[in-house]
Each structure stands twice: as C-alpha cells, then as structure tokens.
Amino acid sequence: MLEEKSDNINDDLSMAKQKLNKAKKLDQNLDIEEDKQEIAQALIERGVNLVQADKIEQALIAYKTAEEFYPELKIDSESWLTLCLRGTLNKQVNDVLFACENAVKTSTEKDEIELAKGVRGIAKALTGNFDDAIKDLEILISNPNILDYELKTKFKQWIETLKKGENPFTDEVLEELKNE
C-alpha cells in the first residue's frame, strides 16, 4: 500500500512537471518558479494531512518529494513539528528525528523553540539518548506558557525516571500523549 501511495504522489508530481514543461515550451518567458513552489507547498500540506492521520511513512514521502521537487522550499516549523511529534508518538522516531531537529532550527519564537525541544526530548529518550533528552525536557518544563500544571508534573516525573537511566515513555505513555 505504501508503494501505491508513493506511486500516486510521484504520478501527481510527474504530471505537474509535464504540464509546467509544456507551458514553458509554449512561452519561453514564462516564470514557473512560483508554480513549482506552490506544488511543493501542496505536497507539504498533503504530508501534514497524512501525518495527522498517522500515515507517517506516506507523509515522509510527501515531504521528501516536495524538497526534491523544489529544493528552495522553506518548510515551516509547525509542519516539521507535526511530523516530529506524530512520528515520535507512533514509535517511528528513527524516521522522524531529522524533522525534530528541523523543527528546532526553523522555529523563531521562544515558546515555539522550547516546545520543539520538548518534543525532540521525547524522541531522544526513545532512541536511548537520555542525557540530551533530559536537557531538552528541562527546557520545556522551565517555560511557564507551554504545559499546564498536571502535564508539567508528569514531565518532571519522566525527567527523574530518565535520570535513573530508565525510559519512562512506554507505549501507554505515548498513547496518553497522543490524546493530550
């Protein structure tokens, strides 16, 4: 099924390329860069929708295809964070860790950066990188604007568990976080 979805994205992209090339042949002065950017952005939007449906592998294909089709595309931090978060909570952390890094890099506001670091912290814990996970999660809980009291208390407990060399992010905890 993944190959089928991959083929659909590639078929759509191939058709778009053909139409743009045909238009360019008809009018040599035609600037198709804006059209290419719009197509790439549509692929990212498709990817975000796939992420929200927990179709992480298909979303990764859409993100990658968009970047290959229009390398100048600037994917926003929210799109990266969505991929990072949902992929992490669906235990596909090795596939989405790059998205976590990109979410941190592309965030511009303090709260946004700290939220991205918090999500990256969960991902790092799942990869066994407890020291970096603790650092990221401590940044998250230090921000008074992101977590409510109950969730902040849970994160503090999870940090203490990480400090003991144990991963607190069990399947049950990840499922609970999906519903937050």
Task: State the main characteristics.
180 residues; mainly alpha; 9 helices; disordered N terminus
Structural notes for this entry:
Keywords: Coiled coil. The protein has 180 residues and is mostly helical. The protein folds into 2 domains: 1-75, no CATH class; 76-180. Helix content is 77%, strand content 0%. It has 9 helices and no strands. The chain has helices spanning 2-26, 33-52, 56-69, 77-89, 93-106, 110-126, 130-142, 149-163, 171-178. The longest helix is centred in the first third of the chain and has 25 residues, at 2-26.
| Average pLDDT taken over every residue | 87
How would you spell out the order of helices and strands? HHHHHHHHH
Distance between the termini: 30 Å
| Total discrete domains | 2
- Number of H/I helices: 9
The description of the largest β-sheet is: none
The general outline is: elongated
The count of strands amounts to 0
Computed Rg: 19 Å
Low-confidence stretches: 1-7
Share in helix: over 70%
Output the structural class. mainly alpha
* Percentage of residues in DSSP E strands: under 5%
